[in-house]
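Lab channel / #folding
Pinned by the channel admin:
"Please post every new chain as: sequence first, then the structure tokens as a reply. Keep commentary short and put observations after the output so the thread stays searchable."

First post following the new format, from NK:
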Amino acid sequence: MSRRAYRAALLHVLDDPVRAPEAAAFHPDGLLVVEDGHVAAFGAFDEVAPRLPEETPVETLPGRLITPGFVDAHVHYPQVDVIAAWGGQLLDWLTTHVFPAEQAFGDRAHADEVAQVFLDRLLAHGTTSALAFCTVHKASAEALFEAALARNMRLIAGKVLMDRNAPDGLRDTVETGRADTEALIRAWRGRGRLGYAVTPRFAVTSSDAQLAMAGEILAAHPDVLLHTHLAENPAEIHEVARRFPHDRDYLAVYERHGLVGPRSIFAHCVHCNEDAMRRLANAGAAAAFCPSSNLLLGSGLFSLAQAWRCGVLTALATDVGGGGSFSLLSMMGEAYKVGQLRGDMLDPLHAFYLATLAGARALHIDDKVGNLAPGKEADFLVIDLSATPLLARRTAQAGTPAELLFVLALLADDRAIERTYLMGELAHARA
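Reply from TO:
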């Protein structure tokens, strides 16, 4: 048996702190015990230490905060090289920047190289689990799965389905999309810590026949997710209405093809009205809130308050490369700013929940990750509260966990992520 303990400040949540304030557990002097890649104990040092076997190595980490690894509910691995690309809203941005970048992923060597960079950046920013888009190329998914498997990282991804309204080299067909998707599910789903998501890009780029095929595959594989975009940008919504004139709204296109259910994650949902939100909630589907990309692409301001009121499970996401950072700490700060513009105050503990346990729930991996409850996989971060002089000054003045989280959300970046662990093994150490 491998056992190791870490003494530092500890923080996680066992539920949504807005609904259950007692769900947030903070220990200024805590002890995390890891055995064979899983959490054995999490709590106050004075309570846990007396039960620790004498031979257990204990590493003391003053000025550090240990949290669960972050869960990114929506990110595009092929868009690493277009992060911070200037100009245009969604549809123009796709045409100008994204589609040319994705065409390169027909080359497996390129896909392999970008997959390594992508996972390096996730881990460096504290993300230990993610739901990721690939490209239309089967090899792009194979490259990402292979890289994540080698790192023992919990990752869910899928080959994009896109059979119309896309450039040459980025379209599949109903038949090739089905064959590639089913082959990838057979080859990768359940290997190591990997999962699969059926991934139509969005309604504009899939025919009715392809969306129906996606629904058939989803129904045939009860452990597979559905991952796509919904109601992100006004021009996109107009285009969906033009191409699907007989559906009542954007969501109805997906409903008609059997794509809306408890295993569905819809990125953005910025312009969903109350009716659509309640239909998502009734179906058990989840929304991925992407504040950075919604601001950078001028898409709009997602209403977290509306989603919460309607009962839609919502998780936080970077949406790189539309989003401007791999950091879910930064996304917590961006989500707060969006709320301020809408007149909705976002509690920092709720933001932390969105970046950890809510993401795990949306991805149906909350029995394994999302917090550091005993028995969970030991995916965790060591955050350096003195990573920069300003961060050190402000965190020293934080009197509550919420104040500490808010300072981190506004001031921290990858310099604050001192270490990232996957199942108790060091996966990233700050240079």
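NK: The chain has a mean pLDDT of 97.
TO: also worth noting, The radius of gyration is 21 Å.
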